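Instructor's aside before we start: the two examples that follow are unrelated to each other. I chose them only because their records fit on one page, so don't look for a connection. First example below.
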Amino acid sequence: MKVEVEKQPGSVSTLQIELPPEEVSKEWDTIANSFARFAKIPGYRPGKAPRSVIEKRFRKEIQDELTKKLVSKSYHEAIEQEQLRVASLANIEDVHLGEDKSMRFRATVVTAPEFDLPEYKNIPVQLPETNVSETSREAAMASQLVKLRPRRARTFTAGKNSGCASRLIISCRDFANKS
């Protein structure tokens, strides 16, 4: 596989990817064989049609499947080979399958920006002094309890005969004041 990387401004790179005919032919054969196994062609038993008939009848479908499979596979291999830090794939265009069964296409990707990280360790930081009084702490805990109670509460159906005038017995545990 031949890969050419053209870096453009704005962390964009264009990859020109060209696949050798051997790799494309091998994948073509695999896909054509899978079509041949399941193709129903008049005059032939399923799976017994000659390869030339299969390729003639399903040429467009085989090409579409081949393009989808090889573009995805070779795109990922090219990124690994060139060690690009890709943020997203912007576009795949100019997919061309040659008569000699070679394939080439262009992929435009957005890469992570490259920059030199300045020295950031041992930077002095001044933290503001915080004073928490007992009353503000209790007020904060009380507001949190008010928010937590509905989430932790469990409700149960009282029964068939309970109504507005019914008396219910409720047991409640207070976990906030546990020692």
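Example two begins here.
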Amino acid sequence: MDAMAIAAGASAVAGIVGFKGNKQAARIARQTGEYNAQLAENELVMLQRRRVQQENVMRKNSERLAGAQRVATAASGVEMTGSPLLALADTFFQTEMDALNIQYASDFDALNKASEAALARAGGAAQAAAFQTQAYSSLLTSGSRSAQLMA
């Protein structure tokens, strides 16, 4: 075997190895993107649970405050009308506003995490496509070199 044939064979083998390596890198890039997306979706579930818990705690604290207001009003001998009733109503409405703010923050968290998951998947797919292109480029380049060496 002459040296040119050996060089052409080595170039072909290098191209095949490069092709297989880039295909593997593409698969890993896709898997990494999916893993990161799953991570963002899992974080979303945890954030939603935390927001529900936060709202429940806020509502319980508000109920305690309203109860304390009723007890204080009853202990003073004043009827639940006028200013005491307005104070109780203010407590109720403020509780609802706080609950809406928590729910809004939960919706905002959901949007952010959904976007993060979509971006992770898109990034993984883009990297995978780039590695796929490199894989085929590696094959074409080594084939071209082998052909030149054999000519």
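The chain has a mean pLDDT of 91.
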